[in-house]
Design brief:
Strand order of the largest sheet: 3-2-1-4-5
Number of helices: 13
Mean pLDDT: 91
Strand content: 15-25%
Structural class: alpha/beta
Helix content: 40-55%
Low-confidence stretches: none
Amino acid sequence: MKYIIGVDSGGTSTKAAAYSLEGQLLKETQTGFGNLLNNAEEALANIRQSLLNLFEELGEDNCQMVVLGVAGVDSGDFREVIFENLAPIKPETVILNDAWMAHYALLDGEDGCLVISGTGSIVIGKFEGLESRVGGYGNLLGDEGSGYDIAKELIKAVLNAFDKGETYSKLEKKLLKEGDFSTVFELVKFVYASGKDQVANLSMVVVEEASQGNEQAIQLLKEAGLKLANQVSMLIEKIGMHKSPKVAVTGSVLVKNDIVYEAFMKEVKSKYPNGEFVRKNISNTRGGYSYYKRQVTEK
C-alpha cells in the first residue's frame, strides 16, 4: 500500500505517522526530541529512527513522500543539515516549519490563519498566495497570550503589590506558595534563572484558580485571549482576508482553556462577524498528508 509520512519534530518528542493516499491513519511511532536547537546530532537520530520504524513495517518503496514539520528549522543552516542527513532515504522529502505543518493539519492547505498558543505564541496565515505572520518573537520580545505571558502577568502583579506595600491577593499568595518562594526576590531569581517552559508552568496556578471562580485569574485568562485576538486581527488586515476569515487554533492555551478561547473568539467575531473558527485536537503529523494532497491537486 502506498502511503505518506508526516513527522512532527518538537522540543520534547518526534511523532511520525503514515497515512494512506486516502488519508487513513496506518501507523504511528514516537521517538525523542526533534528540535535541532536542543542537540542537532541527537535530534537528527530521533527523526531518522522515526522514519525507519515506519519503513520497517510498511516498506520504504511504498512511501510517496516524507513531510517534516521541524521546530527551529529556520535557524542557521538546519534545512541543509537535515536534507544531508536524510539523503540516503528514497522518498521525496519536504521540510516545513512546525507552525506551517500545524497550519496544513488544521486548515487542510486552505487559506486561513492559524493561532498557536502554548508555552509561546505565534499567528501565521495565507490568503490568495500571500503568506505572513505576526508575533512569535520569543518570551523576551513577544509571545503575547501564551502560557509564559499569563505567568509573567501574574508575576508582575505580585511585584506590583509588593512595591505598593499591598496585601497579596489569594491568587498571588498561591503563586508564592506553589513555587515555594518565601520572598519576591526568590521569585525574581527563579524567573531569570529558569527556562521559559519552567516559567510558563506557573500559569497552571492561574488555570486552577480560574476553575474555582477566582476573578483575578479569570481576568488574566480573558486578557490572554484578547491579546491573541489582537494578533489575529493584525494578520487578517495584513494579508487582506478581512471579509470572511477562517481562523484555526492550536496549542494548550487555546485548545484546553475555554475562558481564553471564548474571550478570543468573541473579540475576533466582534470585528469579523463572518469569521469561521476551527478548534480541534489533531496531530500535526496530519499536515504531512494535507501537504501531499495539496501538491497533487495543484499539479
